[in-house]
């Protein structure tokens, strides 16, 4: 009988990130390569009673750094700019500025900004690459998004196994999980020697994680980390994405770079992907607005 847990198995063969900002989760299930976050995760942490002091400290920092109650202090959140290239670039540069202010010793090379994979968002990634800023294309639900993300130079790509609503709607099941598209993206990237790495997210079960074992990377929430850590690997378990044998790499052709019309046409033709992308952005924007309200209230208490 194997003494290896499923979490150990995944960690051996796949880059493992923590989809949580809860320090206790990191301590219990680490080590991790990265910690990922989004507006929903941050909101979930900030409304905890134990984190009230975090809000007050952030509010004080906002007043010290920006000197105005009207300034937007949520620099790591930019879903409101998801359909604007220039506003996304501006926001990301502000995020980098904030990192430099808070931690001057932290190299910008360690910072990777998650940007929603709209056409405008991916165009922003192209500009940011030229500025030496790493990006991850998130809210990915289609092959077309993955192609353009690689063409603009994203370091990482984050396809969602399940649409975002499953995490906020009790009993909801995604009837069109992204497994076939993920296989298509992975094989295209590998066949063409593309450097962009896949980090899968939006899992709802440990079985889904095992179904993609061996892929470049996954980011997992606390409940699934716990599931994986408490279950042993069955004898004879194999990787769903085993290392590929050496082969001749095909030079990738430019498909969507500088070709907005074809990208939009292809994405709109995949109605499920287009819907999931729009709804994910809207959901994150809802949490973003709630976070902004929390911070504005905290700042006003300091007046």
TrEMBL record:
<dbReference type="InterPro" id="IPR018225">
    <property type="entry name" value="Transaldolase_AS"/>
</dbReference>
<dbReference type="Pfam" id="PF00923">
    <property type="entry name" value="TAL_FSA"/>
</dbReference>
<dbReference type="GO" id="GO:0009052">
    <property type="term" value="P:pentose-phosphate shunt, non-oxidative branch"/>
</dbReference>
<keyword id="KW-0570">Pentose shunt</keyword>
<keyword id="KW-0808">Transferase</keyword>
<protein>
    <recommendedName>
        <fullName>Transaldolase</fullName>
        <ecNumber>2.2.1.2</ecNumber>
    </recommendedName>
</protein>
<keyword id="KW-0704">Schiff base</keyword>
<comment type="pathway">
    <text>Carbohydrate degradation; pentose phosphate pathway; D-glyceraldehyde 3-phosphate and beta-D-fructose 6-phosphate from D-ribose 5-phosphate and D-xylulose 5-phosphate (non-oxidative stage): step 2/3.</text>
</comment>
<dbReference type="InterPro" id="IPR013785">
    <property type="entry name" value="Aldolase_TIM"/>
</dbReference>
<dbReference type="GO" id="GO:0004801">
    <property type="term" value="F:transaldolase activity"/>
</dbReference>
<dbReference type="InterPro" id="IPR001585">
    <property type="entry name" value="TAL/FSA"/>
</dbReference>
<dbReference type="GO" id="GO:0005975">
    <property type="term" value="P:carbohydrate metabolic process"/>
</dbReference>
<comment type="function">
    <text>Catalyzes the rate-limiting step of the non-oxidative phase in the pentose phosphate pathway. Catalyzes the reversible conversion of sedheptulose-7-phosphate and D-glyceraldehyde 3-phosphate into erythrose-4-phosphate and beta-D-fructose 6-phosphate.</text>
</comment>
């Amino acid at each position: 009988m194997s003494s290896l847990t499923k979490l150990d198995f995944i960690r051996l063969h796949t880059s493992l990130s923590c989809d949580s900002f809860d320090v206790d989760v990191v301590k219990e299930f680490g080590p991790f390569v990265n910690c990922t976050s989004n507006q929903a995760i941050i909101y979930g942490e900030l409304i905890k009673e134990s984190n009230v002091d975090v809000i007050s400290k952030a509010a004080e920092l906002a007043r010290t750094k920006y000197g105005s109650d009207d300034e937007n202090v949520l620099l790591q959140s930019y879903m409101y700019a998801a359909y604007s290239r220039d506003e996304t670039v501006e926001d990301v540069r502000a995020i980098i500025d904030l990192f430099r202010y808070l931690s001057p010793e932290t190299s910008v090379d360690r910072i990777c900004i998650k940007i929603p994979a709209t056409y405008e968002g991916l165009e922003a990634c192209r500009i940011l690459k030229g500025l030496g800023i790493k990006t991850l294309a998130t809210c990915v639900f289609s092959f077309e998004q993955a192609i353009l993300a690689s063409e603009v130079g994203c370091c990482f790509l984050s396809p969602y196994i399940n649409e975002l609503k499953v995490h906020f709607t009790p009993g909801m099941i995604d009837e069109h999980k992204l497994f076939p598209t993920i296989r298509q993206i992975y094989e295209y990237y590998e066949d063409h020697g593309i450097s962009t790495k896949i980090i899968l997210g939006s899992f709802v079960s440990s079985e889904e994680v095992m179904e993609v074992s061996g892929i470049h990377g996954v980011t997992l929430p606390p409940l699934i980390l716990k599931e994986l850590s408490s279950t042993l690997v069955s004898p004879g378990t194999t990787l769903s994405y085993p290392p590929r044998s050496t082969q001749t790499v095909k030079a990738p052709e430019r498909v969507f770079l500088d070709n907005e019309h074809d990208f939009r046409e292809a994405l709109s033709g995949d109605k499920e992907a287009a819907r999931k992308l729009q709804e994910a952005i809207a959901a994150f924007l809802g949490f973003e607005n709630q976070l902004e309200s929390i911070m504005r209230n905290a700042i006003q208490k300091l007046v």
